Amino acid sequence: MTSGMSTLVTRRGFVGGAAALSVATRPTGARAAVPDDVIAAAKREGKLVYWGPEEIPLVRAMAARFNQTYPGIEITHFRIEPGPAAQRMVAESQAGQVNVDAFDLPLLYMTPILDRGLAEKFDWHGAFGTDPDYLFYDSRAVTNWNLTVPICINTDLVQPGEITSWDDLLKPKWRGKVLLEARGIGPAILMEKWGEDRTVEWIGRLKDNKPVILVGGSPAAEALSSGRVAVAVGTYASKIALMKEAGAPVDFLTVGPIPAMIYVNAVATGCAHPNAARLWAAWMASAAGSKAVWECARFGHMQGPFMSPIGEAYRKAGAEIVLEVTDPVVNQHRLTAAAAAIGAMK
User: Looking at CB atoms within 10 Å, which of 45, 104, 245, 335 has the fewest?
Assistant: First the structure.
């Protein structure tokens, strides 16, 4: 179930351009030791308030792995979706409040954060040896993982080889059987490859095929697993991989181009526990952190030195990966255009 395309990772403004090889085969040369003063300061703070949309058990598992290396730092995870998180940070800053230390967002939602200076600038490479491939916006954000948004299927309802391109979803046989996630994140990223006009046209043709439209990657995965739909566009390979391992009849296809979100960690400007937040973000962008988040949540990188097994599966299949662009204005425009074309967002 592959696209037959040559392997390619694309992103406007890509920093560094390191070859994408597995963790096991590519040494990075990054410093192994974290500065003692940062660790000591983080332990004195003793706490970290972390905002992100990840499911609570997954973050707890990641926090437990973090605490194996850095004990004594209590991590409180507040689960919140990217759009509401950005809106809440803006509102709290206007009220003179900072109630979060570290937060993760995809680049698609970073515009209001950057516009208002709500993410601190920090020398991640100098302090932690963080790979330059994982640094964004003048060192105001650090990649923690990529979430790919591939075509996902219910394996009881879709046979091998039935879907070999995105246009296959427009066929009459899939009428009413495809789920389209309402925020349009995957199509928004595909605009980098297809252009806005073609992407909006594709959404329109898919809507003519009467898809199920709902909000959220996790609800989309659950609808797929239950058999409510045969195909889903808008849930994540990591989520599907976990469900498949648990016995659900689901899988993701290596049909390119495959849109990939760039999730970044950032430290909130003026936060109460900045050293703990920096340590957490730097750990996730390290070899040890990348290994831990894969083992705990099946999250991982599609580029840079710590390519995940999902990334390797795409590479082996020759599937093209299209990453979010780094221009926040372009990202916001594309996300708005995709959501408007879907027409389910209020």
Answer: 245
